[in-house]
Amino acid sequence: xxxxxxxxxxxxxxxxxxxxxxxxxxxxxxxxxxxxxxxxxxxxxxxxxxxxxxxxxxxxxxxxxxxxxxxxxxxxxxxxxxxxxxxxxxxxxxxxxxxxxxxxxxxxxxxxxxxxxxxxxxxxxxxxxxxxxxxxxxxxxxxxxxxxxxxxxxxxxxxxxxxxxxxxxxxxxxxxxxxxxxxxxxxxxxxxxxxxxxxxxxxxxxxxxxxxxxxxxxxxxxxxxxxxxxxxxxxxxxxxxxxxxxxxxxxxxxxxxxxxxxxxxxxxxxxxxxxxxxxxxxxxxxxxxxxxxxxxxxxxxxxxxxxxxxxxxxxxxxxxxxxxxxxxxxxxxxxxxxxxxxxxxxxxxxxxxxxxxxxxxxxxxxxxxx
Length: 370
Ligand code: CXF
Known about the structure:
Elements: E1 2-7, E2 15-21, E3 28-37, H1 40-46, E4 56-57, E5 62-69, E6 81-84, H2 93-96, H3 106-111, E7 122-123, E8 129-132, E9 142-146, E10 150-153, H4 168-180, E11 188-191, H5 195-207, E12 212-216, H6 219-228, E13 232-235, H7 241-248, E14 254-259, H8 264-272, E15 274-282, H9 294-298, E16 304-307, H10 315-327, E17 337-341, H11 345-354, E18 359-363
Parallel strand pairs: 4-8, 11-12, 11-14, 12-13, 14-15, 15-16, 17-18
Antiparallel strand pairs: 1-2, 2-7, 3-5, 3-9, 3-18, 5-6, 6-10, 7-8
């Protein structure tokens, strides 16, 4: 079928084109995309930090409605509302162990441009392959995806807000709920109050952390962090975060820190603010190297520094929980989101980069009504 998509070519970051999309195979689902979040990882593909073969259709925070399900598909049917998650193999050790975020095939399945059949369902009219991204490519009006990429959600919830649950918001909340798994009453610090950091903060509140400390360089974001549950805020332009955090935690330091910026100096601060045996989780994609002394900055305080992908989550387990939290007001994503038309994609990326919008969401189906 023909679809409209924003194509990333060698010449242009985004060009609206008509493409051909393959019908779903037996284990695949055709989804009409309603909306798609814009995530920092899309931008890291544009700047070459995490390359994807071009031409490509980016976008990996899609939400939509099932149009057709392949003959072997059992978890969704035509008309179901779905959030699209990342691609995972389902058969490696980590997938079988309940950690699809740690899928051993994560990079080829999500960044090579091809799916598990080593194919892409996207083509130009002159039969050139177009890379599929994260097994979905949600900057297009329809997507043909593997069944494991779709998570059924209830029909009452406004689908336009749910796409980011498939990546950024799952990464932030899953890192806290699954990976750090803090006990109630433990201290938590988030460095960076973008969509990932704030979803980690909301999850820390759900988990019962206290204190919850947010660190950033923008006062407006810190105010929002307070509204969402931060008990303390620190503008690291004006205060030394590690010293201030020690003060707040009676001289001991925090049990947990969550690093979302990718800035080496910030990562070091996220280690230095911890108490003995504390843990820092990082999810950031950054370009610059970090130099640190393994003995003094890590070992001597028995610290753990761990990288986390996609919140150590199985999307089918975490996303429905997040939707429940969204509906009962404990995960107020609407406070982070701003809607854009697909044609304004460049503006959406620009606003995300300059910090004026925390989570841009592109509307692909203008007719959709919640
Ligand atoms: C990505 C981050 C880089 C590794 C794969 C998963 N997460 C979200 O965009």
